């Protein structure tokens, strides 16, 4: 299976694991979690002489400042994931899963660098490695860890964007992740399961996303601050299928932004069609596949003078054709509390539920796959976050895998 890591779009649209044996495994994941957290702590503060560390930071800052003045903004992140099945699941020789993702990017403002008004160039390279044990222990259709992928180093995104008519129209072309712009789920970006990264009805089917994008083009129009229209066409897309259907993926989305009791709300309605040739579960070949999706999100509460603190929520629904797609309907909903305490304004607490209705003729033992996920993300310091996470799965993969409780941890350093 293939999933996506934590990688918000750098250019957002105007307004993104026998009882003794089990105990030994529990100790392993606790030890791994502690090691990762200690690693974060070791890098969060200086251990070398203060003067040397300060000089190094000053040099890095000066270089980034000089590049920034010329419109060149480099950045990246290092992400470390660990997971372990706490109960249920399937046996595996390794007690836990550990994965690593290094992502490096550069964002170039062509106006500052070349005098080309309204242009943005983005290049992103990544290196992923890991045993990917979790997909064997929890064989869910939607990956339990959205960083899970094959080991590879590659250029995964390279696109040029041009703003037109005072940014009322935006055109982007190149190598892209489609769910950087379409199928986005506000407030859901820090959940680790693929269920909430985009809509499972298409992300488990034909969606071009991490770890390999697709060549294509899209256009977004913003006739007002509250309304946007968009369309995109993508070719040679990656799929979750054991064959290549060919064809093109065409996506359209309309979004409405407003305020309710003074708080921001957003409604997204979209549709897609893939012109490939798809093998039907009951035999034969279909000439195309199409589906639709809806995402509603908004801020429910914000304390007075709280900045980004407050409670946000989302609801998502998507469809795909049951004759060729494993997930014919997907429903998800979640609540995220940013800054649960005033002293920790950047911490985050989230809980969400997902239910995927599976195609009746696809050979599944059970007709659904569902999960509940909860996490707490600690905002450490100097770009470090530490996120313990729990997922409870029923009928993962629609088969006879027992109900599974999965423990995960994500440590991330952004720079």
Features:
415 residues; mainly beta; 16-stranded antiparallel barrel; 5 helices; 18 strands; 14% helix; disordered N terminus
Topology as a string of helices (H) and strands (E)? HHEEHEHEEHEEEEEEEEEEEEE
Number of strands: 18
Spatial strand sequence of the major β-sheet: 1-2-3-4-5-6-7-8-9-12-13-14-15-16-17-18
Helix content: 10-25%
Beta strand %:
over 45%
Give the number of helices.
Answer: 5
Taken from the alpha-carbon principal axes, the silhouette is globular
Largest sheet: 16 strands, antiparallel, barrel
Distance between the termini: 29 Å
Radius of gyration: 22 Å
Characterization of the model:
- The chain is mostly beta strands and 415 residues long.
- Helices cover 14% and strands 45% of the residues.
- The strands form two sheets. It has a 16-stranded antiparallel β-barrel. Strands 10-11 form a two-stranded antiparallel ribbon.
- A hairpin with a 2-residue loop joins strand 8 (248-260) and strand 9.
- The longest helix is centred in the N-terminal third of the chain and has 26 residues, at 19-44.
- The relative contact order is 0.15.
């Amino acid at each position: 299976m293939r999933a996506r890591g934590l990688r918000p779009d750098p250019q957002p649209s105007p307004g993104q694991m026998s009882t003794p044996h089990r105990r030994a495994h529990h100790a392993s994941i606790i030890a791994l979690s502690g090691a990762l957290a200690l690693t974060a702590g070791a890098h969060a503060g200086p251990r070398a002489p203060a003067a040397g560390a300060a000089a190094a930071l000053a040099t890095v800052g000066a270089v980034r400042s000089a590049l920034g003045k010329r419109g060149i903004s480099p950045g990246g992140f290092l992400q470390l994931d660990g997971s372990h099945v706490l109960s249920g699941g399937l046996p595996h020789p390794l007690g836990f899963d550990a994965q690593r993702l290094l992502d490096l990017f550069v964002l170039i403002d062509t106006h500052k660098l070349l005098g080309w008004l309204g242009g943005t160039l983005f290049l992103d390279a990544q290196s992923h490695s890991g045993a990917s044990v979790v997909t064997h222990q929890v064989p869910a259709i939607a990956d339990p860890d959205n960083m899970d992928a094959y080991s590879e180093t590659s250029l995964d995104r390279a696109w040029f964007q041009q703003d037109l008519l005072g940014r009322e129209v935006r055109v982007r072309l190149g190598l892209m992740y489609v769910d950087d712009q379409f199928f986005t789920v506000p407030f859901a970006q820090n959940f680790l399961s693929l269920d909430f990264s985009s809509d499972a009805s298409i992300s488990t089917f034909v969606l071009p996303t991490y770890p390999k994008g697709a060549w294509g083009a899209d256009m977004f129009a913003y006739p007002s601050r509250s309304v946007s229209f968009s369309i995109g066409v993508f070719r040679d897309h990656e799929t979750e299928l054991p064959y290549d259907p060919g064809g093109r993926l065409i996506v359209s989305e309309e979004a409405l932004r407003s305020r309710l009791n003074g708080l921001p709300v957003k409604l997204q309605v979209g549709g897609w069609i893939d012109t490939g040739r798809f093998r039907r579960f009951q035999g034969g070949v279909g000439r195309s596949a199409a589906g639709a999706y809806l995402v509603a999100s908004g801020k429910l509460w914000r304390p007075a003078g709280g900045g980004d603190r407050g409670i946000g929520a989302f609801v998502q629904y998507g469809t795909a054709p049951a004759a060729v797609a494993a997930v014919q309907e997907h429903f998800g909903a979640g609540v995220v509390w940013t800054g649960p305490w005033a002293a920790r304004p950047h911490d985050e607490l989230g809980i969400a539920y997902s239910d995927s209705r599976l195609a009746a003729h696809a050979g599944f033992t059970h007709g659904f796959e569902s999960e509940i996920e909860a996490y707490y993300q600690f905002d450490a310091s100097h770009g470090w976050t530490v996120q313990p996470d729990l997922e409870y799965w029923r009928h993962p993969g629609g088969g006879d895998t027992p109900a599974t409780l999965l423990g995960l941890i994500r440590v991330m350093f952004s720079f």
